[in-house]
Design brief:
signal; Peptidase_S8_Asp-AS; S8 family serine peptidase; protease; 7-stranded parallel β-sheet; 4-stranded antiparallel β-sheet; alpha/beta; 556 residues
Length: 556
């Protein structure tokens, strides 16, 4: 079951929704070490799994606290400083969280969702008219690549196969003709197990397609991750489109369910794995739920809720720090809430899971959107084809690092699919969603079929900061390709701080609109977003619009 995403406004289109309880610790979920055996006694009553984050050097004390609270330690990830514990559904989190060695406790369940919006179907064929362009068959539809100079950069510097980009998402269709040449199946991993139904018996991921409900590493039943991967690195091969960095390698590090939503533990495992295999850039086009804003000590939340939010903040920050120390540049979607993240007032969307748990609470700027506001993450706002900030895109002078094309179907008179971002889509996912007829023809102009390569491949128009982030990821990959040095284990490496510096230096500076109070009008409604900051750094565009051509030609 899909629900409206947290923070959506009346002007925004549709969005993806929330997830499910996670499974227990699995050997394939990362190189965490098993907890030592002991004399722990499991508390009576219904049990649940928890991630218990401990303070530096306090592992043994946290282990004792788990036992004291009647729980059992069943796993550990020393890299990120947490225990996987099993304890009572009622009371365990508050009990173990009261120990000074513990800095956060989260149920091992769904806490995230993707930041993309399906584009409405426009049956009027006139909406599909696009300018002719040289290059790939569908290049004329890629206004986004022209906006950032990627079409010109392709010939000069397409990116190096020594650069590895991790797509932490719902998976990648590794067999798609416009992804397969750049897809590294050997290194790809799936850190999730599909869950057909949620706790209330509603359809979540749907029937399992693979034994044990664990999909192969080259499948994507949602389509979100495939779209992201395609924007980053679809090759120049005479088929469909080309991505920003068509010469780099893609690795699927799956952390999202078929339904498009994410669990905390797979998110941690995925980012740590990306670091361990030497990924140069990681794209995280999702944000953490069930809390739209994570507040460490909001008086309107219960102690258990506070501990969960502390765990989200702490856990993701540790994963980011671990990855950056290993040379991973991390890029995130800013979010589709149409909100000023620097001045939040009210959150009535949280907790977004389970359904019906939402409450209205006051929030302020001490509450953060994760991972977009985690330290060391490059956060990306979305633009429409006119260059304006997209109506749905979150913003904030402290939060927006760069801007990139994300699509905005209502950026102009009426609504047109071609104002959105076109990228690869899995045929199976399109069929499951009813977007193709029995003969494989698209049912609406939001889906495009290209048969110029001998066999047909499919593409879909989507809007979202999810679509903006991979443009920045692709430019970051070009920078590593150009300036990276040979890594000890092979490939290239470039310190994330240097990548960030060069990404900002090569961006196209853009001032706030005049007046700063920009009024969006669509479907008979209007709303105003206020841009703060100067040309060098502001809430709509950050340090500027990423520019692939400048990235491959500028001199630091």
């Amino acid at each position: 079951m899909r629900r409206v995403a947290s923070g959506m406004t009346a002007l925004a289109l549709l969005a993806l929704a929330a997830c499910t309880p996670a499974t227990a610790h699995r050997p394939d979920a990362g190189p965490g070490t098993p907890a030592p055996k002991g004399t722990q006694t499991r508390a009576a009553g219904p049990q649940a799994d928890y991630l218990v984050f401990y303070a530096d050097g306090k592992q043994s004390q946290a282990m004792a606290a788990v036992t004291q609270a009647g729980g059992t330690s069943v796993g550990e990830d020393a890299r990120l400083g947490y225990l996987l514990a099993r304890g009572a559904r009622d009371g365990f989190a508050e009990s173990v969280g009261g120990d000074p060695s513990v800095v956060g406790v989260s149920p091992d369940r769904s806490i995230g969702h993707a930041t993309a919006e399906p584009v409405r179907s426009f049956p009027d064929g006139s909406a599909l008219r696009a300018a002719r362009a040289s290059g790939e068959p569908l290049a004329g539809r890629q206004w986004d690549m022209r906006m950032i100079g990627a079409d010109r950069a392709h010939a000069k510097a397409p990116g190096s196969k020594d650069v590895l980009v991790a797509v932490i998402d719902t998976g990648i269709d590794g067999k798609h003709p416009d992804i397969a040449p750049n897809f590294d199946r050997e290194l790809s991993r799936n850190f999730v197990t599909d869950k057909p139904k949620d706790d209330n018996g509603e359809t979540l991921d749907g029937p399992c397609e693979a034994a044990g409900c664990k999909d192969p590493v080259d499948e994507d039943d949602d389509g979100h991750g495939t779209h992201v991967a395609s924007t980053i690195a679809s090759p120049v091969n005479g088929i469909g489109i080309a991505g920003v960095a068509p010469g780099v390698r893609l690795v699927n590090v799956r952390a999202g369910q078929d339904s498009g939503f994410f669990f905390l533990k797979p998110s941690l495992d995925a980012l740590a794995y990306a670091a361990d295999i030497g990924a140069d850039v990681a794209n995280l086009s999702y944000y953490v739920d069930p809390w739209l804003f994570n507040c460490a000590r909001n008086p309107g939340d219960s102690r258990k809720e506070q501990l969960e939010q502390q765990a989200v903040i702490t856990g993701m920050q540790r994963a980011v720090d671990y990855a950056r120390k290993k040379g991973v540049t991390i890029v995130s979607a800013l979010g589709n809430g149409s909100s000023d993240l620097g001045d939040p007032k009210v959150d009535d969307k949280s907790p977004g899971y389970p359904e019906g748990s939402q409450k209205t609470r006051k929030v302020d700027n001490t509450c953060i959107n994760v991972p977009a506001e985690s330290d060391g993450v490059i956060s990306v706002s979305a633009l429409g084809p006119s260059g304006r900030k997209a109506v749905y895109s979150d913003y904030g002078v402290e939060q927006t690092d760069v801007a990139a094309p994300g699509g905005d179907a209502v950026d102009g008179k009426g609504a047109k699919a071609t104002r959105s971002i076109l990228a690869a889509a899995p045929e199976r996912a399109l069929r499951a969603a009813g977007r193709l007829d029995a003969d494989g023809r698209p049912k609406g102009s939001d889906v495009v079929r290209d048969c110029s390569g001998g066999s047909c491949s499919y593409y879909q128009y989507l809007d979202g900061t999810s679509m903006a982030a991979p443009h920045a990821t692709g430019v970051a990959a070009l920078l590593v390709s150009r300036f990276g040095k040979p890594a000890p284990g092979g490939g290239l490496t470039l310190d994330p701080a240097t990548v960030e510096k060069y990404l900002y230096a090569s961006a196209d500076r853009r001032s706030c609109p005049t007046p700063r109070q920009y009024v969006y009008q669509s479907y008979g409604q209007s709303e105003t977003h206020t841009c703060q900051g100067d040309e060098a750094d502001n809430g709509f565009f950050g340090h500027g619009i990423v520019d692939a051509w400048k990235a491959v030609t500028f001199e630091p």
